[in-house]
Design goal:
- It is a single chain.
- By secondary structure, this protein is an all-alpha fold.
- The protein has one domain.
- Helix 2 runs antiparallel to helix 3 and helix 3 crosses helix 4.
- The termini are far apart.
Length: 77
Amino acid sequence: MAKYRDHPNWYHATMQVQHFLQQCRACENPESIFREAFEMFFMQGNVEALYEMRIAATTGHMEAAYLVGLPGMSGIG
């Protein structure tokens, strides 16, 4: 999934795209978990999304690991 650019229109796209994204999430694809958590945290302000971000980070997702590490490095929670 990482090779496919994230685009807001995907979340309101055709049934085939929606099905693809749901399958990725169901298979616990790290990129899918990261994208969903990123949107939940930064666009919706849901702090609980950091837990999902940690899951993506523990699977080796570099961007998730970076974002999870930032609050710890800055002394926040």
